[in-house]
Design brief:
The chain has one domain. It has helices at about 5-50, 60-80, 85-95, 105, 115-135. With about 140 residues, it is mostly helical.
Length: about 140
């Protein structure tokens, strides 16, 4: 059976679309992580300059919530700049706060502050990925 060049071109374009789609999703994920770090660094430094910080060793949960807020603000600013809707933006920002469910483990002495911070960052990244995959069609631009 002969295969026309039109069929081959269609097949290669169809195969390229999923790769490009995953490439865009990966790029968006990296952008979100960079925006989080920018927010954490810039807003964290501003809060520190104003004396609005919380000691990590004394209050790891409060420290984390402030850091998550800094990251969420940075991420929201970037997402709005990239013209993402409020629904996507708020869901992605909410992913920053998912790890707060672990704070009672710190209060109960089951988890150290440093173990909490490590677990919180891993859980946050997984939560972000879940939001990204849930709304993958909206993140293709």
């Amino acid at each position: 059976m002969a295969t026309s060049s039109h069929t081959l071109d269609s097949d290669s374009r169809a195969a390229a679309r999923p790769r490009a789609s995953w490439r865009r999703l990966t790029l968006h994920y990296v952008e979100m992580v960079l925006a989080m770090f920018a927010g954490m660094i810039v807003l964290g430094a501003l809060r520190a300059a104003l004396g609005l910080t919380v000691d990590f060793d004394a209050h790891p949960g409060a420290h984390y919530l402030l850091m998550a807020t800094d990251m969420a603000v940075g991420m929201a600013a970037w997402m709005r700049l990239r013209r993402h809707g409020w629904g996507c933006t708020l869901e992605m920002c909410a992913a920053m706060y998912v790890p707060a469910v672990l704070v009672p483990l710190v209060w109960a002495g089951v988890m150290s502050g440093m173990a909490f911070m490590t677990a919180a960052h891993v859980l946050m990244m997984v939560a972000m990925l879940a939001v990204l995959l849930r709304r993958r069609r909206e993140y293709h631009h």
